[in-house]
Amino acid sequence: MTRHTALHEEHEKLGASFTDFGGWDMPLKYGSELAEHRAVREAAGLFDLSHMGEVWVSGPDAATFLNTALAGNLAVVKAGKAKYSFILAEDGGIIDDLIVYRIAGEERAESRYLVVPNAGNAPTVAAALAERAAGFDVEVVDASAETSLIAVQGPAAEGILLDVVRNEDRGAVTELPYYAWAAVRIGDVDAIDVLLARTGYTGEDGFELFIPDERAAELWRLLLATGEPEGLIPCGLAARDSLRLEAGMPLYGNELGLDTTPFEAGLGPVVSLKKEEDFVGRAALEAAKEAGPSRVLVGLKGLGRRAGRGGYPVFAPHEGGTDREIGVVTSGQPSPTLGYPVAIAYVEPAFAEPGTALEIDLRGKREPFEVVPLPFYRRKD
Question: Domain count of the chain?
Answer without folding.
Answer: 2
